[in-house]
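Why do we care about 3D structure at all? Because function follows from shape, and shape follows, mostly, from sequence. That is the central idea of this module. The next example makes it concrete: a single protein chain, its amino acid sequence, and then its structure expressed as C-alpha cells.
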Amino acid sequence: MLTEHFKNFTDKFPNLAKPTEREIELYEAHFALLKSWNENMSLVSRKSIERSFASHYVDSIFISDFADSKRKNRPIFDLGTGAGFPGVITAIRYPKAQVNIYERMLKKQGFLQVVLTTLNLENIRLGGDFPMERQTGLFLARAVLPPAELFKFMGARMTESSTLILNVGGSSDPIVCGKGFVKTGELYYELPMDCGPRRVESFDYVPRGTK
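And the structure:
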C-alpha cells in the first residue's frame, strides 16, 4: 500500500527529499506489522490506519526532517512514541542518528520490540517511562501532553540548550512558551488524503540566568 504512494512522493512534496528504496522497504515492513497487530491491539485508530500514508508516515517525515534541521548531531528522544510515530520513522530516515523512544503502555512496548527486531534498527533504544534525570538532546513530542503540561514536564528533564520539537496538529492557536523556553522555529505543512494542515514548532531550553 505505502509503496505505491511513495512512488509519487516527490511530486506531492517537492520540498522533501525523496525516500530511498531502503526507507520505503522499512516503512512498508513497519506498516505490515502495524496492520497485523492493530487487528487485536488497537495501536492506532481504524480510521487512521486507512490514511496511514498521510496521517502517520508523511506527518512523521515532516517532523523528522524539521527535527534534523535542529539536531546538530545530538541524540533524539521521542516521548510517548505509541506505534513508533515519529521516532521509528525518524530512525529509518536518518540511520546515523541515535534515537531513543519511550512508551509506557506494555502492549505498545511489545509491538515496538518486534518492530526493532524485525526491521533490524540498530540506532534505536526502547524504554518505558522517560527518565527523571536531565538529558541533553533533541526531544520530539507528538500528541503527548497539552503544551502547558509538556513545557513543565520537560523543563525538569532537559539540560540547557536542548531543543523541544512540539507538534500541535491542526490547531491554529498560538503556543504560550513555557518558563525557560525560547521559540526557535516553526513549520506549516499540508497532509494529503484530506488530513488537513499541520504545524510543528521548536523551542530551546534556556533556564533563567543562562542567556
